[in-house]
Design a protein that fits this description.
elongated; 12 strands; 539 residues
């Protein structure tokens, strides 16, 4: 048997190998098979290659993307096929349908109230366990999830409000270390004649009213804070010999304040310490409004009472509640906080002063402030309605006043720009020609009569009204605010500012102060001082 293929591959012949198979001596063909001709043209071949060149890269990329984005790795062609199949056929995979179905169920229960008798798991682990033990339908499962979310949201809100209340109490209280410092210095004042020496020395007394010097005023009952303000101003000044500090404090702190600056002179600068009881002008006849503020029952209840009473926490945001708590700081009814409005009367011989709050740090020479032209205005201040920080520098009159009150709506413009207390250049000579003090008194009285419905934020609102038309904006770099409540303060901007202000609850001398902002303040604390060390002042 022989098998022969034709050269053209179009026929196959099967023949016998026996030469005498049919009697005539010739071998015979047993079978001959003809094959059909192939019709594969070069054009069809080219088209096939072209299609594959477009298709294969697409399949490769799709395979790679699906593999990378999958939770479980596909290690077999079967797995890859199950994942590629729906994609190539234009159908969504099973997980996508599950997500859509679940979202639909959640939308359905969104407006439904969670049944009161529904048992809500306390943790995700408990939820999984109960899902294994009980056969919940999809709607029941969605309601359980909703109940868990509402429960946890409520607990988080309660914890946040509790945190804000605790922070408010911490901010209002006097730290043990500062109380210790005050007591020890008071004792030193009574037992150490050097701590009671006259400030300043008798031969320097005429300089207290010399307008060729740079006069700065700070009003505080915090000895440590006053020491930082004075030290930072003197160390940052190019002309410390021209500085005269007027430190005003209350009667109970006077001895400690006097002792500190008597024992820790900041020469060549001059420091005067004076108690409110030592100003002849500060009588009840001259400040009747302040007496009313301190004795008014509604005022005392507002600042010292139950801060949760009347507060609907279910509709109040934590930020709003925090702002209301800050407005209830007891310092706002302190005489020391109102003294700045009486500067022309307290310093009748001075023409220009820079007033500083006790929670500021001076980082640059302030002498150019005395050269600023106030254009006949009384108050040189940084405006707080424009700036890089949209939280701190976005204050208008609407942020401080109740414009639903007819008197406020009639007399004030909600879009007027607010300005900052804490570092102000006051032209006392121009001030004495105005009616600012009387206007201040009038509006404070009106607010008392209206049961605090005109405003509820300390001494700034009546000052905003009283100084209207008498404020000269100064460059914002002179005064940077918000270090006591803005945790995201730009550090580079802090370094560049002339005066940084820790306004807010998170004072640098408190443990609730922001750690990354505290070093700008502590660098001016004299930790080598015996009293500072023994009272363990916060580092």
């Amino acid at each position: 048997m022989q098998l022969r293929f034709s050269p053209s591959m179009r026929s196959i012949t099967i023949s016998s190998s026996n030469s005498g198979g049919n009697g005539d001596g010739c071998g015979g063909d047993l079978m001959k098979i003809k094959l059909a001709a192939r019709q594969l043209s070069y054009r069809a071949f080219f088209h096939t290659i072209l299609i594959l060149s477009f298709l294969l890269p697409f399949v490769f990329i799709l395979t790679a993307v699906i593999t990378l984005e999958g939770v479980n790795k596909c290690s077999s062609f079967g797995c890859l096929g199950r994942r590629l199949g729906p994609k190539l056929l234009g159908r969504s995979d099973e997980s996508g349908r599950l997500v859509k179905d679940f979202a639909k169920i959640l939308s359905q229960v969104n407006s439904e109230k969670v049944p009161e008798n529904l048992k809500i798991p306390n943790s995700f682990h408990q939820l999984v366990s109960e899902m294994k033990e009980n056969k919940y339908n999809s709607k029941e499962f969605a309601l359980i999830l909703k109940g868990m979310m509402e429960k946890f949201e409520g607990e988080i809100r309660e914890a946040k409000f509790a945190e804000l209340m605790n922070k408010h109490f911490a901010a209002s209280a006097l730290p043990k270390s500062i109380h210790c410092l005050t007591l020890r210095l008071t004792d030193e004042y009574s037992s150490n004649a050097f701590a009671r020496r006259q400030l300043p020395a008798p031969e320097l007394l005429p300089l207290l009213s010399d307008n060729s010097y740079h006069h700065l005023v700070v009003s505080t009952d915090n000895v440590l804070a006053a020491s930082v303000v004075v030290a930072s101003a003197v160390q940052s000044s190019q002309y410390p010999e021209k500085i005269v500090f007027h430190v005003i404090t209350d009667k109970k702190t006077y001895a400690a304040m006097h002792a500190w600056f008597a024992l820790n002179p900041v020469s060549p600068a001059i420091v005067e310490v004076k108690g409110v009881h030592q100003f002849d002008w500060l009588t009840r006849e001259n400040v009747p409004v302040l007496e009313a503020v301190e004795s008014h029952n509604a005022i005392r209840n507002y600042y010292h009472g139950n801060h949760l009473a009347g507060a609907n926490l279910s509709i109040t945001t934590p930020r709003t509640f925090a702002s209301k708590l800050q407005a209830r700081s007891p310092k706002y009814i302190s005489l020391l906080n109102h003294l700045r409005i009486y500067l022309p009367e307290l310093f009748p011989d001075l023409d220009k002063v820079v007033f500083l709050d006790d929670d500021v740090v001076i980082q640059r020479d302030l002498s150019p402030l005395w050269d600023i032209d106030l254009n006949g205005k009384v108050n040189g201040a940084v405006e707080t309605c424009r700036g890089e920080d949209k939280w701190v520098m976005s204050k208008h009159f609407r942020n401080y006043f109740n414009f639903s009150n007819p008197r406020v709506a009639k007399n004030l413009n909600p879009d007027d720009c607010a300005w900052a207390y804490g570092m102000n250049v006051f032209d006392l000579h121009a001030w004495r020609k105005t009616n600012i003090i009387n206007t201040y008194h009038t509006w404070v009285k009106e607010n008392l009569k209206s049961n605090l419905t005109l405003w509820k934020l300390g001494t700034l609102p009546p000052a905003l009204v009283a100084f209207r038309g008498n404020v000269q904006p100064i460059d914002p770099s002179w005064h940077m605010l918000g270090l006591g409540y803005q945790n995201n303060t730009n550090i580079e901007n802090v370094k560049k500012a002339a005066v940084i202000h820790y306004n807010g609850q998170s004072k640098p001398w408190l443990e609730i102060g922001f750690e990354h902002l505290r070093p700008f303040w502590t660098k001016y604390v004299n930790y080598s001082n015996e009293f500072i060390r023994n009272c363990h002042v916060l580092v």
